[in-house]
Amino acid sequence: MASQYDPALGFGKIHPTRHYRSEDLERQTFPDQCFNLVITQDVFEHIFDADAAFCEIARTLKPGGAHVFTVPLVNKERPTQRRASRGSDGAILYHGAPEYHGNPVSAHGSLVTWHWGFDIVNRIQKVSGMRSHIIALDDLHLGIRAEYNEVMVSEV
Q: Are 33 and 62 a contacting pair, CB within 8 Å?
């Protein structure tokens, strides 16, 4: 089942008509070791506490499980850059001009909180213990060539 970040619905609840589960990747409602595979698509550039979210995914994966995900690697060879964070009072702190991407649940869009670089795999290993690698999809014979088409795989 798909999930969306929908605090108005309440985390762990199913939307009555759109049939997605509301979840917060930083504080999931799932039990430990309940998934073989977790897939996220272009989400981690919008999460304030990415370290907590990677740890939560590691917690919910069974031994041998994997997290397969996409995230725009905007910084490529440069270090990852934080774009927005939360202050101790919960207020948003901007570390540059605010940037938003489309959001299927909110017409306001989603705030970009990270510009990730290739160093994402080291960060995931350090904070969650998951081994991670990047698969760059680039094959003109198959008609695949685009920017931001990397896929990351993290394994418990």
A: yes
CA distances from 123 to 28, 97, 129 (A): 20, 24, 9
Nearest to 62 by CA among 95, 37, 90, 81: 37
Distance CA 80, CA 78 (A): 7
Contacts by residues 27-31 (CB-CB < 8 Å, ≥ 24 positions apart): 27/52, 27/56, 28/56, 28/59, 28/60, 30/60, 31/60
- Per-residue pLDDT tens for 46-90? 999 999 999 999 999 999 999 999 999 999 989 999 999 999 999
Contact 154, 128 (CB under 8 A): yes
Contact present, 38 and 56 (Cβ < 8 Å): no
Going along the chain from its start, the domains and CATH numbers come out as: 34-155 (3.40.50.150)
Contact 112, 46 (CB under 8 A): yes
